[in-house]
Amino acid sequence: WASFLGGSIFHLLTPGVVLSICALLRKLISCADCSGSRLLALLVKLGLFQNAEVEFEPFRNLDQPDLYYEYYPHVYPGRRGSMVPFSMRILHAELQQYLGNPQESLDRLHRVKTVCSKILANLEQGLAEDGGPSSVTPESRQASIQLWRSRLGRVLYSMANCLLLMKDYVLAVDAYRAVIRYYPEQEPQLLSGIGRILLQIGDIKTAEKYFQDVEKVTQKLDGLQGKIMVLMNRAFLHLGQNDFAEAHRFFTEILRIEPTNAVANNNAAVCLLYLGKLKDSLRQLEAMVQQDPKHYLHESVLFNLTTMYELESSRSMQKKQSLLEAVAGKEGDSFNTQCLKLA
């Protein structure tokens, strides 16, 4: 999400046009019989963070009495609890970090985490979600426990992302590790992500330990995805050690297994650049974009490609404009045009 800041074409529009777009979105959502949280999600996706904040204002902290079913006993007889979707609470909490207030986001996420933890504790003690006596079947209670465990894991994941944005890497790593408890099936991916964070801050030895843990976990997995993950981690480890030739070898091995792997393709081209093979690097990235633009018109790929155009030729602006035309025909309005370095 951070990549959307300042990058959407909507930042080029006048306030009046933006308001018209918001009105159109409301009408479309109303016709589709969707909840208002869809409008908020769309505004965030389009990078219209201030407009999303305005839409949230009537709901205040999402805990007003009229946002609970008990406030409308004749409309919702017997129903209890909040009418606010969980996804809307997460969006409300995350929004502030996109507006430059990550600490406020973290505070809101902590409040959501506290509620999730309390509800989960009540369920595990055989009580209802609100702490009262429960009359549901064991199967329903178990389903509720699984639901709230996944929600708690989702909140922790958002907190980890927020801490990463704040560059508090130690706490971010701790938060990502905590997520594993609630999403054990994602352990290899989360451990790999932690290792790559550590590579970015220069802690090569600890990153290598995390990658070794990934290899132990993936030994139990079937299929090629585990092997690809291990090879990718080894490649990134060599990148962190400035061993570009060995990193390129691992990325190439991944491409033999999965020729359409965009991450391996992109990074293999970067390795070629650092090995002094600018022409080969350009050829690889251009082939990717031309052969499968729908798959490879990705911001990181285009950023690398435009950087290489600048290194290669004084006519780089013309080539960047050609990329812009390709993007305009394939991508949506939330695409981050800053990656083309047109300014």
UniProtKB/TrEMBL annotation:
Ranges of the TPR repeats in the UniProt entry: 228-261
Coiled-coil intervals, chain numbering: 207-234
GO cellular component, one term: endoplasmic reticulum-Golgi intermediate compartment
Protein origin, superkingdom: Eukaryota
Gene3D superfamilies: Tetratricopeptide repeat domain
Keyword annotations: Coiled coil, ER-Golgi transport, Nucleus, Phosphoprotein, Repeat, Signal, TPR repeat, Transport
Signal peptide feature range: 1-20
One GO BP annotation of this record: vesicle-mediated transport
Protein localization: Endoplasmic reticulum-Golgi intermediate compartment; Nucleus
S-adenosyl-L-methionine among keywords: no
Role of this protein: Component of the TRAPP complex, which is involved in endoplasmic reticulum to Golgi apparatus trafficking at a very early stage. Also plays a role in chromosome congression, kinetochore assembly and stability and controls the recruitment of CENPE to the kinetochores.
Subunit structure, as described in the record: Component of the multisubunit TRAPP (transport protein particle) complex, which includes at least TRAPPC2, TRAPPC2L, TRAPPC3, TRAPPC3L, TRAPPC4, TRAPPC5, TRAPPC8, TRAPPC9, TRAPPC10, TRAPPC11 and TRAPPC12. Interacts with CENPE.
Protein name (record): Trafficking protein particle complex subunit 12
Taxonomy of the source species: Eukaryota, Metazoa, Chordata, Craniata, Vertebrata
Protein encoded by which gene: TRAPPC12
